[in-house]
UniProtKB/TrEMBL annotation:
GO cellular-component term (any): extracellular region
The species this protein was found in: Protea cynaroides
Compartments (UniProt record): Secreted
Domain Inhibitor I9: 62-127
GO molecular function: serine-type endopeptidase activity
Entry protein name: Subtilisin-like protease SBT2.5
Single Gene Ontology BP annotation: proteolysis
Keyword list, A-Z: Glycoprotein, Hydrolase, Protease, Serine protease, Signal
Domain named Subtilisin-like protease fibronectin type-III: residues: 729-823
Family that this chain belongs to: Belongs to the peptidase S8 family.
Domain Peptidase S8/S53: 156-650
Length: 831
C-alpha cells in the first residue's frame, strides 16, 4: 500500500476559494468588517452514515463519489445564498458530520445563513489553546508491557496514532523510518491516509513511521493569526508543542508525537551532553500528523477539519494536546462542534485522548468535558535535576539548573552584578542580568555573577536563558540567581531549559540570605561603597545529571482539576474529569530544531517541557499498546481498562498527593481521575465497562438544560422516547453525582474480557455522608459474559461539597477493578 492516491482529498484541493492568496486577501479585507468564521451543520447525512445506513458493502469509490457530492452541494448552497465576495468557504466537513466552515464578511449574511433551509445548526468559531527518557521506566513499560508485545520495536505495531498538533519534523531521529523497528506500512491495512507535501515536508517523509500528514490553517488565516513565513504552509513543525503551565502562552514547545510513538532508544543529546535515551510509549506504532495548531494556538474550525480527515483516513487513536480557550457557549459544553465531532469519532471505533488543561490547581478548570473522551491529568515523576554550589567557607546549597559545572575543583571569585556594572545604569537593568551593556568587561571576566530574580523577569523559564546568554557574552565564569525578598517564596522553574554555561538558581530565601551574607563579608569596598576586592569564592557542580527519589507520582500544580462543568455557567456535571493521570512535568521529548517557538533552544533535537499536553501522548501511546493486544475492543473498553487499573497510591505505597498553590494535599478523583496510569495492568483489566453510541445520546438527553431539539440540532438524531434518565446512568468506569437529594439508583454493567471464568467480591469505601449498597456483592462471570450491578446511594447528611469513595471488585484470578465515587449531597433523606 502506498501513501499516495490520484484522487485528492478536499484538504489538498486548491481552487480559488481554498487558495492561500485568496484567504490572505479576504483576511485583509475583513479587518474593515465584522467578519466571522462559522461552523455550519447541514441536515443531510455524512459519508459514514451513508456507508452504514444504505449498504455497508458500498465500495470506497461510492463513498468518495458521495463525499464529492456533499462538497458540491455545500458550494452550490452558498453560491445560491450569497453574492460573490461576501463569504469564503474554508472547509467541507464530510466524513463524521455534514457541514462546512465559512468566513462571512457581512452581518446580513449571518442572519440569512441562520435561517436557511437545510441548516441544522451554526456555531461561531472559537480559539483553541495548546494545553522521554525516564517515563517508560517510571510506568513499568519496558518490563511489564513491551515483552508481552514482542519487544519495544514491535510494541504498537499495526496501530496508527493520529496526532492533532503543531505538525512534525520528518528528519528527527525519533521519526525517521530506518530507525523504526517495523517495516513501512507494516500491518496498517486499515489506514488510507496520504501525505500532503510542502515547505520542509517532502513526499518521502511518509515512508514508514509517519504514515500520513496534513495541515489545516484556513480559519487561522481568516482570523489574521497565520504568518506564512513563520508557521509553514505544510505539515512541518515550525513550532513544536508542549509546555503551557500558568498561562495560555506556552514558553516551551515540544513534538508530542515522540512521547506517544517515537522510535526506541534514541540518544537525547542537548548542547553536547547525553541526558539518556528516549523511547515513545508505543515505538512500533505509526504516526499520522494533522497540523492544526501554530505558535499562536489554533481555531476549532481547523481542528474539526483535522479530526474529520483523521477518522476518514483510518487512525486508531486520536491524541489532542489542545482544548478550547474557555468553556464554549451554548446549553452544554458537551454540544460544542468539537465534542460532537469526537463523539462520532468514538462511534467509529477511534479512541480519543485529550489534555485536561493547565488551569490548576483551581477547581472546575477542566477544558476537556465529555465522557467519550479520555481526559488526561499531569503528574510529576521521581526524576529530579538538582544542582549544588559550594562556597569558599565550606557551605553548600542546593538549587536548580540543567547547566554544566565550573571547571575542575577550582573556586571562582564571586561578584554581584551591581558591583561589576556601570553605576549610571538602572538598578533593574543591572540586577536581572538580561543586558550585556552595563557590565564592565575587565571586572566581570572569570567571575561568578550574582543576579536577582524579581517580578521584572518574564514569567517563564526563558528568562533564565537570557541570563545565561548574557553571562556567556560578557566572559563571566557562570551565574548565581538569587531570590528577591519581594517575590515571596514561590520557586523559579529552572529545570526546563538546558544551559551552556555554569549556573544555579537558589530557589529559597534561606540560601539567598546565606550567600549574600558570605559575599558581603568577603567583599572590600572603598569609602564610596564601590567594591575594590572580591575574595568570596565558589564553584558550581554539574546540574545535568538526574537522580531518582523513588517517590511519586504527584499531581502537578498546573494540572486542571474537576469537577467537570456542563456549561459556561460552570454548573457541575455528573461526569468524572479528569479520567486518568500520566507523567507531564519536565518530560524529555523531540524538539524541532528549526522551530521559531523559542530562540533559546533553536537547533536542538530535544527539550524538556511540562503540561497536560505532555501527559496526553503518554496515554495515547498506552492506548495503542492496548489496541494492539486487543484490536476488537471498543474505545469505551480501552478507557475503562486504563481507569479501573490505575494506581491511587505512589511508588512507596502512600496515597497519591497533589500540589496545591504552596503545599501538598491528599489527591482526590478531581485531581487525578481514577489515578495514575498502570500500563501493565491496563492490558489485563479483568472487567470493562462498555458504552454504545445510543447510550451517549441518552446521556446527552439527560443533561440539565438540554432538550430534544438541542440534541437533534447537534447530533442529527433526537432523544429516545423512554422515560428521562440521569447522566449518572451512563455506563462509565466511575460514578459521579453532583446533586444527590435523598437517594439515587445507579446501574452499571461489567463485561469479562479476561478469557476465563472468575468470581468477584465487592468491597466499598463510602463517600462521607453517603451510604452505598451494591447488589450482587459476590458474583461469578464467564468469559465475554456481562453482569449488571445495582448501586444505591443514600444521603445520610448534606455535605455541601463533593466527597469521595470507591467501589472495588476483587477477582479470584487477582484482577482488581477500582471504580471511583464522587458525590455531592444536597439534601439528606428525611431532611
Amino acid at each position: 500500500m502506498t501513501n499516495c492516491r490520484n484522487r485528492k482529498s478536499e484538504a489538498e484541493k486548491t481552487p480559488s476559494t481554498f487558495s492561500l492568496s485568496v484567504l490572505f486577501e479576504e483576511k485583509e479585507r475583513s479587518f474593515l468588517l465584522d467578519a466571522k468564521v462559522f461552523m455550519v451543520l447541514m441536515d443531510d447525512e455524512p459519508v459514514i452514515s451513508f456507508k452504514t445506513n444504505h449498504n455497508h458493502l458500498r465500495s470506497d469509490e461510492d463513498a468518495l463519489m458521495y463525499k464529492d457530492s456533499i462538497i458540491s452541494k455545500h458550494d452550490n448552497f452558498l453560491e445560491l445564498l450569497f453574492r460573490k465576495g461576501t463569504y469564503t468557504k474554508l472547509y467541507s466537513y464530510t466524513h463524521l458530520i455534514n457541514g462546512f466552515a465559512v468566513h462571512i464578511t457581512s452581518e446580513e449574511a449571518i442572519d440569512v445563513l441562520q435561517n436557511a433551509k437545510g441548516v441544522r445548526n451554526m456555531y461561531e468559531d472559537i480559539k483553541m489553546v495548546k494545553m522521554t527518557t525516564h517515563t517508560p521506566e517510571f510506568l513499568g513499560i519496558p518490563t511489564g508491557v513491551w515483552p508481552t508485545l514482542g519487544g519495544a520495536p514491535n510494541s504498537g505495531e499495526g496501530v496508527v496514532i493520529g496526532m492533532i498538533d503543531t505538525g512534525i519534523n520528518p528528519q528527527h531521529p525519533s521519526f525517521i523510518s530506518q530507525l523504526s523497528g517495523v517495516s513501512p506500512q507494516s500491518n496498517r491495512t486499515k489506514f488510507r491516509g496520504i501525505c500532503t507535501t510542502g515547505n520542509g515536508f517532502p513526499q518521502t517523509a511518509c515512508a514508514g513511521k509517519i504514515a500520513g500528514a496534513h495541515y489545516y490553517a484556513r480559519a487561522a488565516i481568516a482570523a489574521g493569526d497565520f504568518n506564512i513565513t513563520r508557521d509553514y504552509a505544510s505539515p512541518f513543525d515550525a513550532d513544536g508543542h508542549g509546555r503551557q503551565v500558568h498561562s495560555t502562552n506556552p514558553s516551551v514547545r515540544i513534538v508530542t508525537s515522540s512521547t506517544a510513538a517515537g522510535n526506541h532508544q534514541i540518544p537525547v543529546i542537548v548542547n553536547g551532553f547525553n541526558y539518556g535515551y528516549a523511547s515513545g510509549m508505543a515505538p512500533g506504532a505509526g504516526i499520522a500528523v494533522y497540523k492544526a495548531l501554530y505558535s499562536f494556538g489554533g481555531y476549532m474550525a481547523d481542528v474539526v477539519a483535522a479530526v474529520d480527515q483523521a477518522v476518514e483516513d483510518g487512525v486508531d487513536i486520536l491524541s489532542l494536546s489542545i482544548g478550547p480557550s474557555t468553556v464554549p457557549p451554548g446549553p452544554s459544553a458537551f454540544l460544542n462542534p468539537l465534542e460532537i465531532e469526537l463523539l462520532f469519532a468514538t462511534n467509529s471505533g477511534v479512541v480519543v485522548v485529550q489534555a485536561a488543561g493547565n488551569g490548576g490547581p483551581a477547581s472546575s478548570s477542566i477544558l476537556s468535558f465529555s465522557p467519550w473522551i479520555t481526559s488526561v491529568a499531569a503528574s510529576i515523576t521521581d526524576r529530579k535535576y538538582n544542582n549544588t554550589i559550594i562556597l569558599g567557607n565550606g557551605q553548600s546549597f542546593s538549587g536548580t539548573s540543567l547547566a554544566p559545572p565550573t571547571s575542575g575543583q577550582v573556586l571562582f571569585p564571586i561578584a554581584a552584578a551591581a558591583d561589576v556594572c556601570s553605576r549610571n545604569t538602572s538598578y533593574v537593568m543591572v540586577e536581572n542580568c538580561h543586558h550585556t551593556e552595563p557590565f564592565i568587561q575587565p571586572l566581570v571576566r572569570g567571575k561568578l555573577i550574582i543576579c536577582t530574580y524579581s517580578y521584572d523577569f518574564e514569567l517563564d523559564a526563558a528568562s533564565i536563558s537570557t541570563v545565561a546568554e548574557t553571562i556567556q557574552n560578557v566572559g563571566a565564569a557562570g551565574f548565581i540567581i538569587t531570590m528577591d525578598p519581594h517575590t515571596g517564596s514561590e520557586e523559579v522553574d529552572g529545570t526546563t531549559l538546558t544551559l551552556q554555561v555554569p549556573g544555579i538558581i537558589l530557589n529559597n530565601m534561606d540560601a539567598t540570605s546565606a550567600l549574600w551574607e558570605y559575599y558581603n563579608s568577603q567583599t572590600i569596598r572603598n569609602t564610596n561603597g564601590i567594591a575594590v576586592s572580591f575574595t568570596a569564592t565558589a564553584r558550581i557542580l554539574d546540574g545535568r545529571r538526574a537522580f531518582y527519589t523513588g517517590q511519586g507520582p504527584i499531581v502537578a500544580s498546573f494540572s486542571s482539576r474537576g469537577p467537570d462543568v456542563n456549561n459556561a455557567l460552570l454548573q457541575t456535571a455528573d461526569v468524572l474529569k479528569p479520567n486518568v493521570m500520566a507523567p507531564g512535568s519536565s518530560i524529555w521529548a523531540a524538539w524541532s530544531p528549526n522551530s521559531e517557538g523559542d530562540q533559546h533552544i533553536k537547533g536542538q533535537n530535544f527539550a524538556l517541557a511540562s503540561g497536560t499536553s505532555m501527559a496526553t501522548p503518554h496515554i495515547a501511546g498506552i492506548a495503542a499498546l492496548i489496541k494492539q493486544k486487543h484490536p476488537h475492543w471498543s474505545p469505551a473498553a480501552i478507557i475503562s481498562a486504563m481507569m479501573t487499573t490505575a494506581d491511587v497510591t505512589d511508588r512507596l505505597g502512600a496515597p497519591i498527593l497533589a500540589q496545591q498553590s504552596y503545599q501538598l494535599a491528599p489527591a482526590t478523583p478531581f485531581d487525578y481521575g481514577s489515578g495514575a496510569i498502570n500500563p501493565a495492568r491496563a492490558l489485563d483489566p479483568g472487567l470493562v465497562f462498555n458504552i454504545k453510541f445510543k447510550h451517549y445520546i441518552q446521556f446527552l438527553c439527560a443533561v440539565p438544560g438540554v432538550d430534544d431539539d438541542s440534541v437533534r440540532r447537534a447530533v442529527g438524531i433526537g432523544c429516545p422516547t423512554k422515560k428521562k434518565a440521569w447522566c449518572s446512568d451512563l455506563n462509565t468506569a466511575s460514578v459521579t453525582i453532583s446533586n444527590l437529594i435523598g437517594s439515587r439508583k445507579v446501574n452499571r454493567r461489567v463485561t469479562n474480557v479476561s478469557g476465563e471464568k472468575e468470581e468477584y467480591q465487592v468491597t466499598l469505601k463510602e463517600p462521607m455522608g453517603v451510604t452505598v449498597t451494591v447488589s450482587p456483592k459476590i458474583f461469578q462471570i464467564s468469559p465475554n459474559a456481562s453482569r449488571h450491578l445495582k448501586i444505591l446511594l443514600e444521603a445520610k447528611e448534606a455535605t455541601n461539597a463533593h466527597t469521595f469513595g470507591e467501589l472495588i471488585l476483587e477477582g479470584s484470578k487477582n484482577h482488581v477493578v477500582r471504580v471511583p465515587l464522587a458525590v455531592y449531597v444536597t439534601s439528606a433523606i428525611g431532611s
